[in-house]
Fold these 3 entries.
Entry 1:
Amino acid sequence: MTHEIIDRYAVIGNPIAHSKSPLIHSEFARQTEQALIYTAELVEPGHVAEFIKNFHQQNGRGLNVTIPFKEDAFKLATHLSKRARRAGAVNTLLINDPEHYFGDTTDGVGLCTDLIQNHKIILKEKTILILGAGGAVRGVLEPLLENRPGHLVIANRTVEKAHQLAKDFSDLGNISGSSFDDLANEKFDLIINGTSASLAGELPPLPDHILNENAIVYDMMYAARPTPFMDWGKQQGAKNCFDGLGMLVEQAAESFYIWRGIRPDTTDVIKKIRASLTP
Ligand code: ATR
């Protein structure tokens, strides 16, 4: 009798119980007929390296990494993609052997795929505002700038962080930092919320009347109900208000591609995950 050894994958984080990743990757595996197991694993801070070693011994071949371990994963990766190096964070590890871990970040590609392919938004030459200057925003700037927006403005409560981030990416395009107050005389085609405000049910302190005609607002967070930022967009007359559920599924699809070399179709998976959300 032969025992088939099945490749294992997991998402690690703390907390992790509510992660949608096992559901998403099980759907991808079923659709693409890949034999694999994907689980969510709670890891204690300071134990990431030990976890990876044990996981590899149990046939672990790849990991997704979420809060608070994206910077640990960046440090532990022995090889990094160009985009992960620039982002300073890793959300995908490919573990081919116990000594060599390849680290990549798929969040930015996930965001751009959702914007461009799923929502048919053109980024080229558009005026884009992104809110927040933490790890979530740093991780998506390079792919956003690759789409050649006319101007990308980063606004943050702590304005120094917005200026620093703009400086770090200034070689890639027309990018600048701003306070929330200084946005009052500007207009934008697309506003992306990359702050953690929605997690706390809060709204970043945005001035009124900063949307161009046909403007779109996009919250990188998602929930069963529209976030406070999406409600704000609607009230300000945005043409469309989207949440980040598509980004979540698209970043997962890119991770799946890195591990298995096959690109799953995301349309039905996005619908399935949407239907699984409970208010
Ligand atoms: P992440 O890794 O999710 O980006 P982070 O690095 O802690 O998390 O960054 C959180 C971001 O959300 C920061 O830009 C933070 O602004 P400050 O740098 O001024 O703290 C922003 N943020 C959190 N709550 C906010 C709120 N209620 N209004 C506006 N910005 C908020």
Entry 2:
Amino acid sequence: MCGIVGYVGHREAYPIIIKGLQRLEYRGYDSAGVAIGLDNKLKITKTAGKVLELDNKASLNNTNGQIGIGHTRWATHGEPNERNAHPHTCENEELAIIHNGIIENYDTIKKALLDKGHVFNSDTDTEVLIHLIEEIKKQEKVSLFESVRLALNEVVGAYAIIVIEKGNTEELIAARKGSPLVIGVSEGEYFIASDATPIVEYTRDVVYLGEGEVVLINKHQELNVRTISNISKTPYIEELELSLESIQKGAYPHFMLKEIHEQPKSILDTLRGRIDPTNKELKLGGIFDFEQTIIKANRIIIVACGTSWHAGLIGEYLFEDFARIPVEVEYASEFRYRNPIINESDIVLAISQSGETADTLAALKLAKEKGALVLGICNVVGSSIPRLTDAGIYTHAGPEIGVASTKAFTTQVTVLTLMALLIGRKKGKISLTKYTEIIRELELIPKKVSQVLKLDEKIKLISEEFHNVSNFLYLGRGYNFPVALEGALKLKEISYIHAEGYPAAEMKHGPIALIDEEMPIVVIATKQGNYDKVISNIQEVKSRGGRIIGIITEGDTVVKELVDYCIEIPSCFEELTPILSNIPLQLLSYHIAVLRGCNVDQPRNLAKSVTVE
Ligand code: AGP
């Protein structure tokens, strides 16, 4: 969603801000803007297009100045046009603001401000906030820092903001609630951003602003942090665990392709230190203190959105198989508004790559209020979900920049496998033999993923046959049913081809009517579980003329003869197949999207982390 960058210090602010905005492009946006603080004015440039267009426009004029803010906007209130792009100013342009989030009560505040004579120039909720700050500053005759704090007391909603003041070339004010904000700290300068990607090349010392905190950032002073209710806080400086290389494409044409190919390493990193090399015992430090509570849990409720929800579905199979704990997998957005039944003996497990998804965060807060133990599986260290949970396990996928989740999914499934195995073993629900065999197999998975990645060229050739179709169907059963859902989501989000995932047997209850010679059907038909039944489903598709792409187990001649195109993946335990069977589907979506000329890393209308509900 929206991206925020700010700088105050001794360097030229503009290049830092533009580069920072480019680093945040992956979050998804439709307009951009920048404000540079000069001695006697704020120099503001905005555009409805991309950061490149903003740069072309702003560079026509003088961009000098050592303080500034910049923004990429993902429209919520008001069209994505120049008028609604941030920064927004109060009437006399004394103040400007950039904002990520939603001010839910903006309408009420706006009406009150209109009565006081304020005139608005945009349709945004954000503009209302800067007018409110201006009004409080004027009425209460307090500092800008105090005005921002007081204004935020009147606001309902989520925000990460930075405010800049005309003529004040030394200070910025920032605040956050529900949307993340990181401050990079260096000698005589500060870098502020929605995440650490714009900061990493300048400093490794960062402060993650806490929930409901507001900060005065003066280039000559230490950070002055207060809560919105005016309690002083000591900022905690942490070292950034992020390399510049990990947020650059390197030799790859797209981040998505780079991230697909990183999976052997990211899975290995996720396993690292968690399997004892001698006795194959599992160690999950993040949940160690809560093992007994998990073992005794009556139920695990998994909450997540999108791809993470699909990983959660695989978690359901794993926990029920290995640990015999009933699992429910919920869309966080439905769960939070459904008055769900949550007991103290329930465990609520959130799965999220970004750790910032607004609905998942809200579902977790609700579960916490109702007394459940809340756990998380997240990728972004220090993000909001891990901060809220009682305990959790990080995936070590590394930064995922492409909007389409790839390595996040396979590492989430890896963590769920480890968790279910550990709890299952401690509960005595899985035999030592099976437990050890699966762990040994799990250790081989990174190599097997590398083997699947070698099929890239073959999958590209298959993609050439199908990139012009309008619909796709994905079928799978058991552990591979969530993979079918994930394959369909991946295709639609980056290629804009309509695709649906179905449990293969459900096809007869409706989707079979769609099948004709035009319809490609991806069937995951690996040689375990309901193999024979999937073969019957393939026959049903075949007899209706559908063109079948089979994801099959290496050496399986039976299915190979039935399908039109086949992609062979190495054999492994059924419980681990999703990690392997998902990879060809990622590559298929990627190549189809590239052939269609789509913007793979930043698909239209999508945001990497959905920080508004
Ligand atoms: C997946 O490709 C999507 N970009 C999307 O469904 C994503 O998984 C979802 O928004 C959840 O994000 P999270 O894992 O960061 O919570």
Entry 3:
Amino acid sequence: MNGFVQCVELEKTNLNLLIDMMSRMIKPGIYSVGAIDWDRRLFDELIPLPDGTTYNSYLIQGSDKTALIDTVDPTKLEELVGNLQELDVSIDYIISQHAEQDHSGSIPMIMDIYPDAKVLTNPKCKELLKDLLLIPEEKFITVEDGETLSLGDKTLKFIYTPWVHWPDTMVTFLEEDNVLFTCDFFGSHLAESDLFVTDECLTYRAAKRYYAEIMMPFRLLIQKNMEKIRDLQIEIVAPSHGPVYKKPELIFEAYKDWISDETKNEVVIPYVSMHGSTKEIVYRMVDILAKNGITVKPFNLTASDIGELATALVDASTVVIATPTVLTGPHPSAVYATYLVNVLRPKLKFVSIVGSYGWGGRTVELLKGVLTNVRAEIIDPVIVKGFPKEDDFKKIDALAEEIIGKHKENGLL
Ligand code: FEO
């Protein structure tokens, strides 16, 4: 945890607040009209959501025109419509910052309710919306990077921020009120009754997990996107998942840390063990590394939340994958974890593999073949025949010592 985050233990959310979200004002003329999904536990049929999520949608009421920024997942359409009806407004523009359906999926239904509304977006997002939602060409207005739209006394500026996390993503800056609407960028999967961040520690953890799962593969592109918004006078950051930031520096400082090239003195060990041999190797390594001042994070893959594993990869310098041999190769759980490491592209410096076998196999060769995106130095693996014996422990100890030495050479320890 970084020093800039003040962890404050707050009272748990009152269960009596498990009510439908109502429209809520962020500033005069700016309303949050989205939905809280308290019960969703899986996103994209892949990502665990231990804390649910929100689909934030924002209504901007100018003196001449009204715009809706993003919609909600179609499962929550009723709540969005109820919130809009409560405000009793017409909608001139539906601004789509990103075509993924948790934000765009309700656009066709909103267009049916507000038939005069135009969908305003960038050309890439328009192409995706036409493909995914079959929205007809004549309904679109497209904007260039940096273009503005006047709603009368409120002006929206659209800034392309590609690959946070699809190629179509953009953010919207409300110039008179200094509010930046960011869709997935700076978001968190966190269902809370509070509109604004109240528990900074909780939000920080959820945002880091979200970054790890969604944004980390695009770390270098995020560096460029952060540069694009650097000179804006931002008072409020309003993402389309999770709480709204009244103190933008909380999430900006966190992102600067996560996207930097710096790693921490941490070793992550995703492991699986069928009969105890691989676990013995892992425990030996954890013991030596920890005694030498390295933070070690082992994840038993039969019981671990992959979101926690992804989060640990944000800061790790080293990953050691630990697996027994099944048939002729690594355990499928280890293959899955290795694949995740590869696609998430963490800023690792070192990787190694440990494990055990009974009569042979191609574990190292197969796992190395999965790690095509990872630019880290591969430290010689240690694969043991059966349960580790004295000579094997010497090799395991030597691997641990080599990792300790690498961390020292790199100023991590
Ligand atoms: Fe929250 Fe990429 O959608």
